[in-house]
Each structure stands twice: as structure tokens, then as C-alpha cells.
Amino acid sequence: MTYPDDETGQVLAEMQAAGIDLDKPHSVVFFQLFEEKSQAQAMVNHLAEHAPNMQVALVPDELPNVWDVNCTLVMQPSYDAIVAQEAEFEQLAAKFKGYNDGWGIEA
């Protein structure tokens, strides 16, 4: 399969080349970053109320004074689905003064 020539397309192409079957569902983690723990916690609380089946973890980042909210969804990692989900998380994280910082597959 060919993917668009952007970061998401390149990551999917690399996964496919590594032998990951992208035609089946995987646990896909979307990363949101925040400068304040209270902002990150507010997003976690929002997701607990509005997406109770989503796995969400609040963890300190490697960088000081940065907090990660890792949101895991089981989904087929198609290009369109990844791009759409990242856009949703970008809008949601912005409401809590954070931003989306990419995604990955738990392999």
C-alpha cells in the first residue's frame, strides 16, 4: 500500500515494511503534552466523563515541567483514521492548553 508523503504516511509505511499488519486493529496511543499538571488532569477528567472506555494515562514527561496524557484507542491504523483522530485530539488538547504530539502503536 502507498501512503501520502508526510510524517503519518512515512510512519505507516515503515510499520508496514517492518511486518506490522495494518489491516487489523491495534492499540494506538495518541500523545498530548501539557506544561501544567492541572491542565493535563483536566483533560483526563474530561475524557473519563466523555470517553469512559478509552484508556488514558497521565505521566510526567522526560522533560521537566511537562506532562503527558496518553490516550489509547483500539483501531485499525489507516492513514485517514489516524489523521482524523489526531485532529480531534489536537482540538481537545487545545481546550486544556495542551497539544497533540503524535501517535504510536503498542507492539
Automatic annotation (TrEMBL):
Pfam families: RraB. Residues 6-104 form the Regulator of ribonuclease activity B domain. InterPro entries: RraB-like_sf, RraB_dom. It comes from the Bacteria. This is Regulator of ribonuclease activity B.
